[in-house]
């Protein structure tokens, strides 16, 4: 299968707005908004393991998990006619913490009759500034 880098700025903005809505749900502690953005068959792959749609929303049981965030370096890859991969860097601050954290995220968004739904997400911790790059 051929994957095509998407250079359509309007489409990138649209998908980035969908992803931002997930982050805003985490910031607001809004499990309903989180669930609304996730596909019923959502799979998350995280340093802590796998998560489904309900597990993703359950993290909000005790309130917001993010105090502040910014997304950057966004890019899109076309995986199919109604399926896109969004990859980006997230810099964020957890509630009651002083140190900001960073990670790279890959999210697959699938178009449905209800709009774009996040069907897959994988996070990997960003290396600290100045850390040696393990890639050749």
Provide a short characterization of the protein structure.
The protein is of the alpha+beta class. The protein is 24% helix and 46% strand. It has a seven-stranded mixed β-sheet.
What labels describe this entry?
136 residues; alpha+beta; Nuclear Transport Factor 2, Chain: A; 7-stranded mixed sheet; 7 strands; 46% strand
Question: Cα distance, first to last residue?
Answer: 26 Å
- The number of helical runs is 3
Oligomeric state of the chains in view: single chain
Structural class, from helix and strand content? Answer: alpha+beta
Shape: globular
Uncertain regions spanning at least 5 consecutive residues: none
Helix content: 10-25%
Q: Give, in order, the helices and strands.
A: EHHEEHEEEE
| Sheet with most strands: strand arrangement | 1-4-5-6-7-2-3
Mean pLDDT over the full residue set:
93
Q: Which fold name corresponds to the CATH topology?
A: Nuclear Transport Factor 2, Chain: A
Taking the sheet with the most strands, its summary is: 7 strands, mixed
Please report the total strand number as a whole number. 7
Tell me which CATH architecture applies here. Answer: Roll
CATH class bucket: Alpha Beta
Whole-angstrom Rg: 15 Å
- Sheet-strand content, in percent, reads over 45%
The structural domain count equals 1
């Amino acid at each position: 299968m051929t994957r095509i880098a998407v250079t359509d700025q309007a489409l990138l903005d649209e998908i980035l707005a969908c992803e931002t809505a997930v982050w805003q749900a985490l910031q607001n502690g809004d499990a309903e908004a989180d669930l609304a953005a996730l596909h019923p068959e959502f799979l998350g792959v995280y340093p802590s393991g796998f998560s489904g749609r309900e597990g993703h929303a359950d993290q909000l049981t005790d309130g917001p998990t993010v105090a502040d965030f910014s997304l950057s370096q966004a890019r899109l890859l076309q995986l199919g006619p109604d399926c896109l991969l969004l990859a980006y860097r997230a810099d964020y601050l957890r509630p009651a913490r002083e140190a900001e954290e960073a990670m790279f995220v890959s999210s697959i968004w699938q178009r449905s009759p209800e709009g774009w739904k996040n069907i897959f997400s994988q996070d990997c911790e960003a290396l600290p500034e100045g850390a040696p790059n393990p890639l050749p």
